[in-house]
């Protein structure tokens, strides 16, 4: 019996080593396109260790995170895995304890707040509650990085705001005050504000929260359209792994504050990933398109 116990321990150690090797290899892997050319990244997080001021504990420990240029990247993982924390550091809303974040090869720290807002549009989950402002006024707030303090609203501002309102599909509520809107309508108004910023990079933290299925698809199609027509780089946190796999060019899977894997959805979404990261037993079908068919939750003590 002792001998068997010994081999089980050895087996466990071997499995752990393999898992560590796997993680190490996926931390640093470079992605190549169909022509074998290394994919350029608009945003790179390097050697990131992240925590919140009130806590000593490191929440995210990520050797390298790439957000490829002119592509849509979805960050996926269970609640509390560190997705929002990572996004905060990519948008300079959270100072890393260690490591750096660069946008187009320059440190985020080298930009003033206003300069960064011309490069980077951010939709967080923590929007201020501005009950008495109209939707249109909110969307005009998105233009502040492009104006001097005393500048009046330009023709370009009008065009950007009208385009953002149209893209978000909220023309019919643009004179309505935010306080009178449903959660979903408010979300679309905030999205329109970020679109009006007219940046080359967009970071969106669960933009489909509060939205019914019709509006979820509207938002995802709008983001896709911006990417395809204007080459906008998007990093988006999505709750639904199937939606993320269908909609994004790349997936970044995060588990317990560490990068589990990243790459094109058809390479990243596996039955193993769904078990390891999401704790579900599922079947993955790759034809005619990628499909995730969950079967059951796995026991919580499996990790």
From TrEMBL:
Classification via SMART domains: AAA
CC terms in the record's Gene Ontology section: plasma membrane
Positions of region (Disordered): 1-36
Main subcellular location: membrane
Molecular function (Gene Ontology), one example: ATP binding
Reported function: Required for corrinoid utilization. Probably part of the ABC transporter complex BtuCDF involved in cobalamin (vitamin B12) import. Probably responsible for energy coupling to the transport system.
Stated name of the protein: Cobalamin import ATP-binding protein BtuD
Compositionally biased spans, kind Basic and acidic residues: 7-32
InterPro entries (alphabetical): AAA+_ATPase, ABC_transporter-like_ATP-bd, ABC_transporter-like_CS, P-loop_NTPase, Siderophore_ABC-ATPase
EC number: 7.6.2.8
Sorted UniProt keywords: ATP-binding, Cell membrane, Ion transport, Iron, Membrane, Nucleotide-binding, Transport
Lineage of the organism: Archaea, Methanobacteriati, Methanobacteriota, Stenosarchaea group, Halobacteria
Domain ABC transporter: 43-281
Keyword Endoplasmic reticulum among UniProt keywords: no
Catalytic activity reported: an R-cob(III)alamin(out) + ATP + H2O = an R-cob(III)alamin(in) + ADP + phosphate + H(+)
Subunit structure: The complex is composed of two ATP-binding proteins (BtuD), two transmembrane proteins (BtuC) and a solute-binding protein (BtuF).
Domain of life: Archaea
Locations listed in the record: Cell membrane
Membrane topology note: Peripheral membrane protein
Gene Ontology biological-process annotations: monoatomic ion transport
């Amino acid at each position: 019996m002792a001998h068997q116990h010994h081999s089980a321990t050895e087996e466990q150690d071997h499995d752990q080593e393999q898992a560590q090797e796997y993680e190490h290899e996926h931390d640093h892997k470079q992605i190549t396109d169909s022509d074998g050319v290394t994919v350029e990244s608009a945003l790179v997080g390097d050697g990131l260790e992240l925590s919140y001021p009130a806590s000593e504990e490191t929440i995210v420990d990520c050797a390298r995170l790439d957000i490829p240029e002119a592509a849509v990247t979805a960050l996926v993982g269970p609640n509390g895995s560190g997705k929002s924390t990572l996004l905060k550091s990519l948008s300079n809303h959270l100072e890393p304890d260690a490591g750096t974040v660069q946008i187009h090869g320059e440190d985020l720290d080298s930009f003033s707040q206003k300069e960064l807002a011309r490069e980077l549009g951010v939709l967080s989950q923590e929007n201020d509650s501005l009950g008495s402002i109209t939707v249109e006024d909110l969307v005009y707030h998105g233009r502040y990085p492009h104006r001097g303090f005393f500048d009046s609203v330009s023709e370009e501002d009008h065009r950007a705001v009208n385009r953002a309102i149209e893209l978000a599909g909220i023309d019919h509520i643009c004179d309505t005050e935010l306080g009178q809107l449903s959660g979903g309508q408010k979300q679309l108004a905030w999205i329109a504000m970020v679109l009006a910023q007219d940046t080359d990079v967009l970071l969106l933290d669960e933009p489909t929260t509060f939205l019914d299925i019709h509006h979820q698809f509207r938002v995802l199609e709008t983001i896709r359209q911006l990417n395809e027509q204007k080459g906008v780089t998007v990093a988006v946190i999505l709750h639904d792994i199937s939606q993320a796999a269908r909609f994004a060019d790349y997936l970044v899977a995060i588990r317990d504050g560490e990068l589990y894997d990243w790459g094109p959805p058809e390479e990243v979404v596996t039955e193993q990933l769904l078990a390891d990261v999401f704790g579900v037993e599922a079947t993955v079908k790759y034809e005619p398109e990628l499909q995730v068919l969950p079967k059951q939750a796995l026991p919580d003590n499996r990790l």
